[in-house]
Amino acid sequence: MIPDHSPSIVPLEVPSKARILFVEDDDTLAKEVVEELAARGFSVSHVSTGQAGLEAATSEAYDLMVLDRMLPLLDGLSVIEKLRGQNVQSPVLVLSALSAVDDRVTGLKAGGDDYLTKPFAMDELVARIEALLRRPNDTRATTLRVGPLDMDLIDRTVTREGRDIELLPREFRLLEYLMRRPNQVLTRTMLLEDVWNYRFIPQTNLVDVHIGKLRRKVDGTGETPLIHSIRGSGFMLRVSH
Amino acid sequence: MSLTDTSRFGVLRTATFRLTLAFVAAIIGGMVLQFVLLFVQMTHFESERSSGILHREADVLVQETPERLEYQVRERASNELRVVINWVGLFDGHYHHIAGDLKAWPEGLTVDGKVHRLTLSPTDDAPYEMRFLAVKVPGGRILVLAHSLHLLSELHYMIRRGALLSVFPVVMFALLTGVVLSHRALARVKTMHEAIDRIMQGDVHERLPAGRERDELERLAGSVNRMLDRLEHLMDEIRDVGNDIAHDLRTPLSRVRARLERATSSPHDADYLNSVIEQATQDLDQCFSVITALLRIGEIENGRRRAGFAYVNLGDLVADIVDLYEPIAETNGLVLTSLVVAEPASDTLVTFGDRDLLVEVLANLLDNAMKFTPPGGHVTVSATPGPSVINLRVADTGIGIPEAEREAVLGRFYRSDKSRHVPGSGLGLSLVMAILRLHGVELAIADGDGTTAAKGCAFEMTFQVSGSPDPA
């Protein structure tokens, strides 16, 4: 059963050459990150102080800012507050060496869009940058369609080319999250934080097991696999055009 | 810093010597009081005695005829009876002298049959005090008898002299005793000071001389020694923790180093290099997880941050976490169940806490339970309301923890399980306890839900019910 109203349009590609402003005072780390991001097709500008970051962000339009929380002269949170005060609305990813329990909360309250604790894996950073650049645009849609998958958010049903897929509520939530972000690397931490709203690092391969269960239901025998593991980073719901 | 700076006045500046001074003052006070009382008593006694003599003599003389009395008076004035009655005088009704060695009427004397103490001031001699008794005798005449205070003044003199002579040696003796005792106390304190100096210089095994703790100083030394034992134990623990952490960090780091060294020493293909890099990254992540866990524990323990505190329904929390862990349990061949006893939409399971941290507690305990429970076992997470408390319990049917080791498991800050084969920072339980302490909750270990052969183990926590926030 295919719903008659049109499914939400989900952008499949990162905007080409997204411009990123990276504010980080550790030059060695910054060099690594800038090169890695450049290699992945981003255009990155790097500055080392909060003041310089503020000036750069107000004088030029960036698609996204990656901001270290502890910066000389002007700290990261003040930079965000000043930017938001000047109506600069580009998404901000806050980096922090602080592992404080409520740092994340204050970071997000100040106007940050995501929060990443140092040390981080490069793949984690890239995945989060991509997620911020491609935020799901229509969250009010009642149906989602990604490749052969159809999801009805009201009836809570999922079909793959007419085949009904029986899902537990938690599996449904997980698949919904994946279907809102197709062709996008989703890390284990992102899934834990966004699907389950947990912010701890499990000692077991929790997320892998959940994905494995979901995959067995979604990708039947003989069907083209849709849920892929991305080595070293996470998972992706991949559909061809 | 040491005692030698003040040793010149050392003895004089001890508590014992100050106590001695107080005692000396008390002894002097006591002696003064004793002599004053003696003085008063003797004065009283002597007065009574002299009054008695005067009255008896007067009573005898009043009986005599006037002629006989005059004779008697003259006789007394000259014979040895003067020793008893020192002066006698017979006067007429106008106080004129008739007979006796008392030639003039003593000024101020009244004829009332009572003894009066008066001062005589003869023109040719120094004034002196006497006790007088004047009685009327037949013929309108007056008989005056006088008794000197000679004996009394001699007694007074003796008492004063005795007092002065005895105070000095007593005080000297007390002071000397004080100095000797103070010196001994000082010597004992000095050995303690020296022991403390050695401890401060780093000899943590040194102890104060406590003997058999017979007096207060030795008991104090004993208490200090027990405190030092405890501190030394804690220092050992911290050193062990440091060693364990260093060891836990060194193992993956040396692996990384060995792999990288081997990878650079000889040419290898890209696949091999990639696998080396991947493994190195994993080992570094292991190091980071140890460091992160330590920092978090420190932060939770020291910071006392309660910014994230809100009303949390532990029943929902248990249901959520079990939902998250159920597939893992299934994969491991375990049955994971949640047991939430609560009225729908009631407040009996609501407490005040940090949801994220409490999730971490349950996740760690669940990780732990599933690690140590063999396939086919059960793991149960329950939240049950009690009288104004909520009992949270994570129980398994695994190998369990022997009762003797339970205290140690909870008491140790850092459990370095040398034989552990499971990944993780090894700091999970320490983190759990830090979080629970932040919430003011104790963690207890009890028998789990297993059979008698394998009892399993249960981690039990008791939270306070906080009720829901007022919706208004």
Description:
- The complex is a heterodimer of chains A (241) and B (472).
- Chain A is of the alpha/beta class and 241 residues long.
- Chain A is 36% helix and 20% strand.
- Chain A folds into 2 domains: 19-133, Rossmann fold (3-Layer(aba) Sandwich), CATH 3.40.50.2300; 143-237, Arc Repressor Mutant, subunit A (Orthogonal Bundle), CATH 1.10.10.10.
- Chain A has helices spanning 27-39, 50-59, 76-85, 103-109, 122-133, 169-180, 188-196, 206-218, and strands at residues 19-23, 43-47, 64-68, 92-96, 114-117, 143-146, 149-152, 157-160, 163-165, 186-187, 227-230, 234-237.
- In chain A, the strands form 3 sheets. In chain A, strands 2-1-3-4-5 form a 5-stranded parallel beta sheet, with helices on both faces. In chain A, strands 6-7-8-9 form a 4-stranded antiparallel beta sheet, with helices on one face.
- In chain A, strand 4, helix 4 (103-109) and strand 5 form a beta-alpha-beta unit.
- In chain A, helix 2 packs parallel to helix 3.
- Residues 1-14 of chain A have low confidence and may be disordered.
- In chain B, a hairpin with a 7-residue loop joins strand 3 (115-120) and strand 4.
- Chain B has 472 residues and is an alpha+beta fold.
- Chain B starts with 14 loop residues before the first helix and ends in an 8-residue tail after the last strand.
- In chain B, the strands form 3 sheets. In chain B, strands 2-1-5-4-3 form a 5-stranded antiparallel beta sheet. Chain B has a 5-stranded mixed beta sheet with strand order 7-9-10-12-11. A two-stranded antiparallel sheet of chain B has the order 6-8.
- Chain B folds into 3 domains: 1-206, no CATH class; 216-302, Signal transduction histidine kinase, dimerisation/phosphotransfer (DHp) domain (Helix Hairpins); 304-464, 2-Layer Sandwich (Heat Shock Protein 90), CATH 3.30.565.10.
- Chain B is elongated, with a radius of gyration of 50 Å.
- Classes of the chains: A alpha/beta (241), B alpha+beta (472).
- The A-B interface holds A 99-102, 105-106, 117, 119, 121, 170, 196, 198-206, 209-210, 212-213, 232 and B 278, 281, 285, 288-289, 292, 295-296, 299-300, 303, 305, 307-308, 320, 323-325, 327-328, 331, 354, 356-357, 359-360, 363-364, 367, 370, 422-425, 428.
- Chain B: Keywords: Kinase, Membrane, Phosphoprotein, Transferase, Transmembrane, Transmembrane helix, Two-component regulatory system.
